[in-house]
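hey can u check if this looks right to u? its 107 residues, i copy pasted from the old doc so theres a chance i mangled smth
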Amino acid sequence: MKIGHLIVPAGDLDAQEAFYTGLGLTTRFRDGDRYAALTDGTVTIGLADASQQPVPGRVVLSIQVDDLDACLANVPGAVVETGPHERRAVLSDPAGNPVVLYERLPS
C-alpha cells in the first residue's frame, strides 16, 4: 500500500501546471487538457479536468493497494469500477473526505 497521488481539480490546466512547476515540481506526463501528473520525486499531484475527477470539484487522496478486494472486505457496499488501467473504489472517510483505493491492472 502506498499513497498513489492527490487528484486536484484543474479549471485551467496550463495555469495550474505553471504554478506547480514554478514551485519546483516536475511534470511527469500530460494528457492534453484533461490531466497532468507532477511530482517532487516521491508524491504525485494529478491535475484533473472535470472528466478525470473521481469526485467532481474535490481534492481526492488516492491510495494504491496490492489487493483491492482484500482492502474492501470490511467495507460494506463498496462499489468497484474497472477502467483501462486500474480497478478502483471511491470511499469517504469518517469526516466525509473522498478517498480512492485502486489496484493497477496487469499490463
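The mean pLDDT is 93.
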